[in-house]
């Protein structure tokens, strides 16, 4: 359903990164590598894709990206603070100029009143700038649909950051 849109957006991210001479990286939790996978699916992507961090567990977020245990304990893994720290950690631990991070509740379980299924926090960071974050509520759809919508939004975020 979204496959062509993901391919088109991925191509646009790569083209824009090339035009601006930027390297990109991802920090992914709920998508488990789908964002970086959509970029590397395109031949020649290695000239602008540095790496992807798949940090599904809280321990991985802390060890690979330097996310604070205090942030995870205080706000939860699906939060503005953690999304920002993931995006910043991806930039700090790579050769990339631009990062996008995602952490969310893809379902079908795991949701709460405060963070229902379909809640995803996005973090983004450009080298030398403070990270930003925003939240999307995709609704209680299938796990697959929530993850695809997250990939699309992450790719759109890359495009906005690079422009």
Automatic annotation (TrEMBL):
Gene3D superfamilies documented for this protein: CinA-like
Ranges where the CinA C-terminal domain occurs: 9-159
Pfam families, alphabetized: CinA (PF02464)
SUPFAM superfamilies (alphabetical): CinA-like (SSF142433)
Alphabetical list of InterPro entries matching this protein: CinA-like_C (IPR036653), CinA_C (IPR008136)
Protein name per its UniProtKB record: Competence damage-inducible protein A
Organism: Kordiimonas sediminis
Lineage, top ranks: Bacteria, Pseudomonadati, Pseudomonadota, Alphaproteobacteria, Kordiimonadales
